[in-house]
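[Automated response] Your request has been received and processed.

Submitted sequence:
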Amino acid sequence: MNEPRYTQPGDSYASRIPYVVPESLDQLTGPRSGMVELPVSIVWGAQRVFDLGNADDRLSLYKTVLSEASTIDQLTSLVNKDLLIELWPQLHLPRYCVRRWHTAFPQLAEIGAGGIWQ
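Generated structure:
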């Protein structure tokens, strides 16, 4: 099966990053509260533990996971559908990541573009 082309001639390296996107938002069954420790394969820095009760930690965790998850299992176990929808308008994500999510889930585009930073 051919995957849709998300890049155009002349696009940057960033446009070729294979962002992981689920087939359905219902697959996103990650936690809504508590402490979450990200694996080294997603975040390499010193801060790998995030408190979902803290607004800044929530945004940082979701930005990191949506940008860096390399498997569908990582994504679906760490991201919660309802929390993603709540945070989506505030997330600062690479534009190609946003494009992939908006293509898969037009309802996200309707609630906000996301804070595109790249």
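Summary generated for your ticket: The helical segments are 55-68, 72-78, 81-87, 95-104, 106-111. The chain has a mean pLDDT of 88.
If you did not submit this request, please reply to this message.
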